[in-house]
Design brief:
With 130 residues, the chain is α/β, with parallel strands linked by helices. It has one domain: Ribonuclease H-like superfamily/Ribonuclease H (Nucleotidyltransferase, domain 5, 2-Layer Sandwich). The protein has four helices and five strands. Helix 1 runs parallel beside helix 3.
Length: 130
C-alpha cells in the first residue's frame, strides 16, 4: 500500500493557495510535489491536493492500494462516507474523487492532526510563495 500525506494552504490576505503531497512507497522512497493552485477556498484547496495526488499515483505507479492522510477532517469524513457532501463544490470534488478511486482496489482516507502533517503543509506553503 502506498501512503500519501496531502495538504493545502490558503492565504486569504495575499489571495494565494498551494498544495503539497508526499508519497511514500513500499521501499520507503519519498516523492514530493507542490504547486500553486487557483482555488482559494480552503475545503476546495484540500480536495485539489487529494485529487492531484491520486491522479499522479494512478498515472505513475503500479499499485492497487493507497492510504491518503489529510489534516482536513471534512475531506476525510466525506471521502470515507461518514458524511454527505452538501455544498455544490464539495459534491463536484467528491465526484472527481470517486472516479479516481476506480483505478485502485482500496483507497483509505484518514484524518490526521496538523501536527503530524508538517512536511505536506510546508510544501503547500512553499508552493504559493514561488
Amino acid at each position: 500500500m502506498l501512503t500519501v500525506h496531502t495538504d493545502a494552504s490558503v492565504d486569504p490576505a495575499e489571495q494565494e493557495a498551494g498544495i503539497g503531497w508526499i508519497l511514500t512507497d513500499n521501499t520507503g522512497e519519498e516523492i514530493t510535489h507542490n504547486s500553486r493552485i487557483g482555488y482559494r477556498e480552503s475545503t476546495s484547496a484540500e480536495w485539489v491536493g487529494v485529487i492531484h495526488a491520486l491522479s499522479w499515483i494512478a498515472t505513475n505507479k503500479d499499485t492497487d492500494a493507497v492510504m491518503v492522510n489529510t489534516d482536513s477532517n471534512s475531506v476525510a469524513e466525506v471521502a470515507d462516507g461518514k458524511s454527505t457532501p452538501t455544498a455544490k463544490s464539495t459534491q463536484r470534488w467528491y465526484a472527481r474523487f470517486r472516479k479516481l478511486t476506480t483505478y485502485f482496489e482500496t483507497v483509505i482516507v484518514n484524518y490526521i492532526p496538523s501536527a503530524r502533517n508538517g512536511k505536506a503543509d510546508r510544501l503547500a506553503r512553499t508552493a504559493y510563495r514561488k
